[in-house]
Design goal:
- By secondary structure, this protein is an alpha/beta fold.
- It contains 4 helices and 7 strands.
- The strands form 2 sheets. Strands 5-4-3-7-6 form a 5-stranded mixed sheet. Strands 1-2 form a two-stranded parallel ribbon.
- The chain is globular and about 35 Å long.
- The model has no long low-confidence stretch (mean pLDDT 89).
């Protein structure tokens, strides 16, 4: 497996995701060790300092599955906003994988059937921080 790319997370996103994980029963929270690992290794910046080419919460991002060649555009949301077409929860493996990546960066992520796929961020159509919406 390749080494994981460096990732950047806003302090606000980090606080909200950690609060979400802390409210879960321990057995449920244990399912999200990969997400915790991502949070632990991230560079944390203030929302106003986040580069415009980084995937943050509520970003609209297009990524490519390098194995299949499929491209998908999604909005990365908290669980309360998931379930709507075009959204992916931060708690989904692909959501956890995308958070903090820069445009052009690849990352491997596990699929539900246990295989690993490689995703690459192609474009960020909307990022709250770049749009001046720092407290969404």
């Amino acid at each position: 497996m390749s080494s994981k790319p460096a990732i950047i997370i806003s302090s606000l996103d980090l606080q909200r995701i950690e609060a979400l994980l802390e409210r879960m029963p321990p057995t449920q929270a244990a399912q999200y060790q990969a997400l915790r690992g991502e949070l632990d290794r991230a560079d944390v910046l203030e929302p106003a300092d986040i580069p415009a080419d980084v995937v943050t919460m509520n970003s609209v991002v297009t990524f490519k599955d390098d194995d299949s060649g499929d491209e998908l555009t999604i909005s990365l949301v908290y669980p309360s906003g998931a379930g709507v077409p075009g959204t992916v929860s931060i708690l989904a493996p692909v959501g956890s994988a995308l958070l903090g990546l820069k445009v052009g960066q690849p990352i491997e992520w596990p699929t539900p059937d246990g295989r690993r796929r490689q995703l690459r961020v192609l474009e960020i159509e909307y990022q709250p921080e770049a749009s001046g919406d720092l407290h969404r």
